[in-house]
């Protein structure tokens, strides 16, 4: 059985799906590992750091792959290079991706989108959303600290006392909690906000204050649900006043399979202090702020809004290490006695499946 990966082709992508550590573990399971030459170089893993595996050019890698692993989906033409019936594992971004799903089907591939895994205890070791969101949350706060015109910590100096920055994190999921932890390490005064009531305790356990706006919207599977128009109005009204004292906002709010909720309106941003900064980690899904332009910097009334994209790619070594371990733990579900035999009776296998031998299995 050949497990294979290419150098990622998405713009700015530096991660790799198979690291030297994971390649070794796959070899230990009796699997052959075949990578495109230079696949891990941008992540900090030159070919020489892999032991006991093979390298080839992209076309040869695809032609021999029984199981193809990726970080992000390659362009749709790439699927043509895989053999019919091959398995694909990675973040396949299945929502709204009709053309990609059609290409996977046409090639009769059996594909698994790791972002569809249920968020159960057993799935934690394969949870790429969590591992990559942690990287994104960490990086978003560092970007905020770097771009802000103020220090984060309090400083007592001969030139006077500097007050700590007031930082608000909106959305206290995996990324938001890591952003809070990072701001805390930098010494800011932090508040966290979320619509899921259970996040209060998580925010407080990181030494931050929970901002209670009186709107509660727990959904299913540990996720939030979309707010109704009235709830959104109540949230915005309560938030608008509070924003006047905030120096930095990092937003991370998301609802699976839906566009990012718009939480910060242009009018709310207008009410903020000049010099205030918003880093919108939800930019990829359209953004939590009305002014966000994905991948760009917007300035209005002295307030700067940043919409950075693909943040995990900016810390590619650790992001790849975590991602590859997630992939390995999932691949373990597919392999028995050296053969690829996905057990569709296992909900982790069934729920992450997008196409099975070309048949559509993804309903979203
Ligand atoms: P996510 O990326 O889907 O959303 C980020 C956060 O935004 C969530 O906390 C959500 O509640 C919040 N949000 C959504 N709409 C909002 C709004 N209008 N206003 C304010 N906040 C809003 O979520 P995530 O970080 O991937 O994780 C969500 C949940 O899944 C958490 O409860 C987490 O603990 C849980 N989880 C469980 C497992 C597991 O058990 N295997 C693994 C990871 C995460």
From TrEMBL:
It catalyses: NAD(+) + NADPH + H(+)(in) = NADH + NADP(+) + H(+)(out). GO terms for molecular function: NADP binding; proton-translocating NAD(P)+ transhydrogenase activity. Residues 145-307 form the Alanine dehydrogenase/pyridine nucleotide transhydrogenase NAD(H)-binding domain. PANTHER family: NAD(P) TRANSHYDROGENASE, PROTON-TRANSLOCATING NAD(P)(+) TRANSHYDROGENASE. Residues 4-136 form the Alanine dehydrogenase/pyridine nucleotide transhydrogenase N-terminal domain. It is an enzyme of class 7 (translocase). Its EC number is 7.1.1.1. The keyword Cell membrane does not apply. InterPro entries: AlaDH/PNT_N (IPR007886), AlaDH/PNT_NAD(H)-bd (IPR007698), NAD(P)-bd_dom_sf (IPR036291). It comes from the Bacteria. This is proton-translocating NAD(P)(+) transhydrogenase. Keywords: NAD, NADP, Nucleotide-binding, Translocase. The keyword NAD applies. One of its GO terms (biological process) is NADPH regeneration. The transhydrogenation between NADH and NADP is coupled to respiration and ATP hydrolysis and functions as a proton pump across the membrane. Pfam families: AlaDh_PNT_C (PF01262), AlaDh_PNT_N (PF05222). GO terms for cellular component: plasma membrane.
């Amino acid at each position: 059985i050949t497990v294979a990966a290419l150098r990622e082709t998405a713009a700015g992508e530096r991660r790799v799906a198979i690291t030297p550590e994971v390649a070794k573990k796959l070899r230990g399971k009796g699997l052959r590992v075949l990578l495109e030459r230079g696949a891990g170089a941008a992540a900090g893993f030159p070919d020489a750091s892999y032991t006991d595996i093979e390298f080839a050019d992209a076309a040869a890698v695809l032609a021999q792959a029984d199981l193809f692993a990726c970080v992000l989906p390659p362009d749709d033409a790439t699927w043509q290079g895989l053999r019919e019936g091959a398995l694909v594992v990675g973040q396949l971004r299945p929502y709204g991706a009709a053309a990609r799903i059609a290409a996977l089907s046409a090639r009769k591939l059996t594909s698994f989108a790791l972002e569809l895994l249920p968020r159960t205890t057993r799935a934690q070791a394969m949870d790429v959303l969590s591992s990559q969101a942690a990287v994104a949350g960490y990086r978003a706060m560092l970007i905020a600290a770097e771009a802000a015109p103020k220090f984060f910590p309090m400083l007592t100096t001969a030139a006077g006392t500097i007050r700590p920055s007031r930082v608000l994190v909106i959305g206290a999921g995996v990324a938001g909690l890591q952003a809070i932890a990072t701001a805390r390490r930098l010494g800011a005064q932090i508040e966290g906000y979320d619509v899921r009531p259970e996040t209060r305790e998580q925010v407080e356990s990181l030494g931050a204050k929970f901002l209670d706006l009186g709107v509660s919207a727990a959904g299913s599977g540990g996720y939030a649900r979309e707010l109704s128009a009235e709830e959104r109005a109540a949230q915005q009204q309560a938030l608008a006043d509070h924003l006047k004292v905030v120096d930095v906002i990092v937003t991370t709010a998301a609802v699976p399979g839906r566009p990012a909720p718009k939480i910060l309106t242009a009018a709310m941003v207008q009410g903020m202090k000049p010099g205030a900064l918003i880093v919108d980690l939800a930019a990829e899904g359209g953004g939590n702020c009305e002014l966000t332009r994905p991948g760009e910097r917007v300035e209005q009334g002295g307030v700067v809004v940043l919409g950075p994209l693909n943040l995990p790619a900016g810390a590619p070594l650790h992001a790849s290490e975590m991602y590859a371990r997630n992939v390995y733990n999932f691949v373990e579900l597919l392999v028995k006695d050296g053969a690829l035999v996905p057990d569709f009776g296992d909900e982790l296998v069934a729920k992450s499946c997008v196409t099975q031998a070309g048949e559509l299995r993804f309903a979203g």
